[in-house]
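Let us begin with a simple case.
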Amino acid sequence: MDRIYRYRMTTTSGGNLSIRDDNGDIWVTPARVDKGKLTRNDIVCVRADGTIDGLHPPSSEFPFHKAIYQVRPNIHAIVHAHPVALVAFSICRQSPNTRLFPQAHSVCGEVGFAPYACPGSEALGKSIAGTFSAGCDSVILENHGVIVGGPDLARAFERFEAFEFAGKILVKANQLGEVRFLNDDQLQQAAARGVDFVSYAPAAASAHELELRKQLCEFVQRGCRQRLFISTEGSFSARVDNHSFLITPTQNDREKLCVEDLVLVQGDQRESGKQASRASRAHQAIYEKHLQVQAIVFAHPVNATAFSVTNESLDVRTIPESYVFLRDVQRVPYGIQYRDDDRIADFVSAKNPAAILQNDGVLVTGSTVLDAFDRLEVLESTAEAVINAGAIGEVSVMSSDVINEHGTAFNLN
């Protein structure tokens, strides 16, 4: 709940969480307690026999939590809240199409829509339970908000966060033009991607490697706070030497990464006991072709990803910082980064450090971890400014003469 509140995905009074334990008891957030100041002692236990143990009454929405658990034995945690993008879909009586990019579709699961009933009522519980019993995992509540379920609270939170992120991207993308969704074959292409590294035990880490591990963790966590990453999406790597690099692991909560979680990759080998990101081969191809690249980010920030799911090009000749940092942003056809032919490395260079990946976010390279992160921030800020400008008037980019002036002033030629 602390993360949900900090990320402004609920309000002081809105939303509720629950966990069903192995005894059948349901632990749920309390009614009428500030969501920004909850402690573990505030959580209420509703026993399987109906008795209540806690300092407060359980959430008034407890009936629909109970109803979902009754129809879905595989669900052990539930998140309900009122994040603004999904509420927008709720009050338009629509459900987001999560086929925007592969990770959104796989994490969110089956999407459904539950007809309106009064909050806290048995009728609402029946409506929601009916939608979940049909196999849905992420459900829009008509004129109310969203509810998601998962096998544990971490997975339920990740599903909730990814669903809201997909909703935000759709809202932004619809301001740009027609949204392009992925078909079954394209989704399968991403799902079939694997990393065939052999496990090995590397030598003790050097001071340089330890510093890179620290930097990567700090910037991934900062990226989560800045909403450039979410817990289930994106990869960040740093070159250790000409033969090895560090990269974020797969299926780990990005905000909770620690230095020991990062994976050292060398050739066809990866650090034993860990699973490297499924994007590792794409990172490796870029490092091998471009020796000046020292750090790489694949990410799905909302505004830049909105460009990736439409046919609109992102022209960064908006303000000096955007052009100097990003130059001309390339567009990568869908699926290039999943292939084994190393073609992804052809879309970035010293003069083109960033690219939009069709229906899969963005790729950014840098001369340091800080440089790559800075460019990611600039790319997302530029994309947001361009989208916002569309509500004001026609975007006016800098002229060729101005661009040439920047090239001379900042030695970009």
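The second case is a distinct protein. As before, the sequence precedes its structure tokens.
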Amino acid sequence: MTESKKETRRIRFKDSSGMDFFKRYLHDFKGRKIQVLGIEKDAVTLYINDAMEFLYTYTWGEEAYPHEVQEQFGFFTPSEFRASIEKELGDCANILVFEHYLQEGYEEHLSPKVEITDHNGKSVSLPDSTCFIVIEKSTL
């Protein structure tokens, strides 16, 4: 998940079927309740992490839909991941690599389908999709 949980994103669908896909997703998604902050004829406004959940399902399309709505993509923010690791493993582990980034291909695949803007109407990038963590067992 993205650190700034209260940030919002407006998703405008370029394809008329996009809104129908979103409404079906709202009903079918099992991970958590998606909070819709605004809805228009061809657009929705969501908190950034709810937008992320939807967009990473939308990018995979109909073939993967039955599986994607059963999965929660985002669970922790990067700082929450780090805190959880440190709490659970403490001095027994050393975090060697801790990176989060947007996986290549998502924006290129979604750009023909949606326009994503912030609360000011400015075009923005998708939130990070991947967190890569390497933990070394400590030799205490």
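The first strand starts at residue 8 and ends at 13. The two ends are 33 Å apart (CA to CA).
Keep these points in mind for the review questions at the end of the chapter.
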